[in-house]
Amino acid sequence: MSRGTVLITGASSGIGEALARKFHDEGFDLVITARRTDKLEALKAELSRQDVTVIGSDLASNAGISAFIEELSPHANTVDIVINNAGMMVEGNFTELSDDDITRTISLNITALTRITRYFAGEMKSRGHGRIVNVASVAAFHPVPGMDLYAATKAFVLSLSESLAENLRASGVSVTAVCPGLTKTEMVDQGLAATLPPFMMSTVEEVARETFDAVMNREVIRVPGPANQIALTWAQHQPRWLVRGLGGLAARFSKN
Question: pTM score > 0.70 for this model?
């Protein structure tokens, strides 16, 4: 018997795929979406114990977001958990980013997440129950020179999630921000990852397990991994100029 239905965006690889596997193994039906429907269909073929619905979407444009929400509407009142995982990061100096780079990053990381959250928050509030999970990043807690735009979008996600968690507290709807650190995914620079000690890198399975626990416990913020928790605790007790300066030094070093 199903424990409910979970919607996961960006489910074709990385953390999103790991989340789909974890929730499926825990007995949940799935609605999974991403641009690469071939990968979603391959994932669906593997996950046979629960119902899996595939919806292809490109959430990096307003038109794509609208089309996705319209296609999703028949499932809206059956979705118990929404996980806004889809996101992107563009490389390069901020002044060299194209208009398309900026538009697609903000659309996917901020606009899609915000519109999907608003849509389901209303649906869930009327029912009196539901859970929303927004995947942010440890980069949300302080400026990250070298990942300027990405870190700024994740700061938005964290702030929005915390505010909504409080605003919706009495409605039966919980909002959780999950803030992974460096994780072994397609988006992470593999050269950089190879230079780091293993304890500083999380696997997607570890992030998925911690996300599941945070959702079930209705936590507002979860930072997966003890190394990330220690680093954030240290940074939060330092002057912002020092954290900012160290981030800039690390960014310059990584480019050499």
Answer: yes
